[in-house]
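Preliminary data (for renewal application), phosphoric acid mono(formamide)ester complex.
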Amino acid sequence: MPLQSRHLLGLEGVSAEEITLILETAASFKEILRRPIPKVPTLRHQTIVNLFFEPSTRTRISFELAEKRLSADSISFATATSSVTKGETLKDTVRNIEAMKIDMVVVRHQASGVPVFLTQCIDAAIINAGDGMHEHPTQGLLDMMTMREKFGRLKGLKVAIVGDIAHSRVAGSNMHGLKTMGAEVMVCGPKTLIPRNIQELGVEVSCSVDDAIAWADVLNVLRIQLERQQAGLFPSVREYHAEFGINKARLQRAKKEITIMHPGPINRGIELESDLADADCSLILEQVTNGVAVRMAVLYLLSGNEEGMAEG
Ligand code: CP
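Predicted structure:
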């Protein structure tokens, strides 16, 4: 196996060499995706199940597209139309699916730790497509691919992650991946949304978005999870927008070029001014494009296929 683990559960513990291999493999797959027929037979002997227990647009569709582009047989599972609604347990669900002879499971779940739990239930390779507040490793990888394309490097790049750091699996994967690759990372948000002792991960902390803008090359802006307001973690959406919302006026005051990223879905006009999401400095749709190539790379590298990327 080219990667140390046969699963992708998170970016914590994944080495710089492995991340580089995934990003370089994804860059090659991006070339294949530009061809008139963007399809290779690489995974034609593999059966992959996409288990999404939580809503998703980008991650689910890009995994499904990646599987189709690699000629895998793939099936997508939606909780609402499954026997989970009749009370079937997660363990029984995956053991029954595995009994149909599958090779890989892509899983998104609202509970942190579900992908690790699945590795203890079945033999298939498990890919984490976002678990609770823990990690979203393929998002971290596609974010790094997008930054690397724009800047030609990750080492020394200054990335400020702005928003709800405490509840964000995207922040988790970005922090682990970027630090491993030698980037400098700052987290910025209301104190109530920043975990205590986060400095132990080697990241800078700021509660001033203007300071973060002055420091950073890239702002990775997170979706503010509106349910956190009900939990009393910030006073109101209006106040969050006033203190932490990224807008053109703030960027103009900083008098510098800055790159805007966001994992989606965007709350337009709350964490990010709507015009800015579509501005030239925004890489948001490039992130989505890179999501397909990154997921092809992860599926290929975990498949154990020893042939070339374009071979069956
Ligand atoms: N970025 C992301 O995970 O988006 P989805 O929830 O739409 O998959």
